Amino acid sequence: MYVCLCHGITDKQIRQAVKGGCGNLCDLRCKTSVGSDCGRCSKIAKQIIKQEIEQEQTVIATFDV
């Protein structure tokens, strides 16, 4: 799904950026330009970042022995 219409950025691209080390909106903006024009996508982009980080933490916790 397209999250940022101004730059044509999808949720998949945001998730990949988070997996690549973007941990907040500022990092994501530097890497993908999300939220740098009209800003309407910022809220959902933050939600996707949060979801992806939580999912990664869950996976790590599952393997914690």
UniProtKB/TrEMBL annotation:
<keyword id="KW-0001">2Fe-2S</keyword>
<keyword id="KW-0249">Electron transport</keyword>
<protein>
    <recommendedName>
        <fullName>Bacterioferritin-associated ferredoxin</fullName>
    </recommendedName>
</protein>
<feature type="domain" description="BFD-like [2Fe-2S]-binding">
    <location>
        <begin position="2"/>
        <end position="50"/>
    </location>
</feature>
<keyword id="KW-0479">Metal-binding</keyword>
<dbReference type="GO" id="GO:0046872">
    <property type="term" value="F:metal ion binding"/>
</dbReference>
<dbReference type="Pfam" id="PF04324">
    <property type="entry name" value="Fer2_BFD"/>
</dbReference>
<comment type="similarity">
    <text>Belongs to the Bfd family.</text>
</comment>
<keyword id="KW-0408">Iron</keyword>
<dbReference type="InterPro" id="IPR052371">
    <property type="entry name" value="BFD-associated_ferredoxin"/>
</dbReference>
<keyword id="KW-0813">Transport</keyword>
<dbReference type="InterPro" id="IPR007419">
    <property type="entry name" value="BFD-like_2Fe2S-bd_dom"/>
</dbReference>
<dbReference type="InterPro" id="IPR041854">
    <property type="entry name" value="BFD-like_2Fe2S-bd_dom_sf"/>
</dbReference>
<keyword id="KW-0411">Iron-sulfur</keyword>
<dbReference type="GO" id="GO:0051537">
    <property type="term" value="F:2 iron, 2 sulfur cluster binding"/>
</dbReference>
